[in-house]
Amino acid sequence: MYVYDDFDRTLLAERVAEFRDQVARRLSGQLTEDEFKPLRLMNGVYLQLHAYMLRIAIPYGTLSSLKLRKLAEIARRYDRNYGHFTTRQNLQFNWIKLADLPDVLASLAQVGLHSMQTSGNVVRNITTDQWAGVAPDEIEDPRIWAEILRQHSTMHPEFTFLPRKFKIAFTAAKHDRAAVRIYDIGLRLHKNGAGEVGFEVMVGGGLGRTPYLGKTIRPFLPKRDLLSYVEAILRVYNQYGRRDNIWKARIKILVHDLGVEKFASEVEAEWQTMKDGALAIDPALVEEIASRFHYPKYEKLADHPPELGKAMQDSAFATWHRNAVSPHKMPGYAIVTLSLKPEGGPPGDATAEQMDAIADLADRYSFGEIRVGHEQNLVLPHVAQRDLPALWPQLEKIGVARPNVGLVSDIISCPGLDYCSLANARSIPVAQELTRRFGDLDNQRRIGRLHINISGCINACGHHHVGHIGILGVEKNGEEFYQITLGGRADEHAELGTLLGPAVSYGEVADVIEDVVAAYVELRSGPHELFIDTVKRIGVEPFKERVYAAH
Amino acid sequence: MTAPTEQKIRVKGPVVVTANRLADGAVIYRAAVGGWTTRLDAAAVVSTTQEAIDLLAAAKREGTTAVEAYVAPVAVAGERIEPGNLRERIRVAGPTIELPATFGI
Question: pTM of the full predicted structure?
Answer without folding.
Answer: 0.96
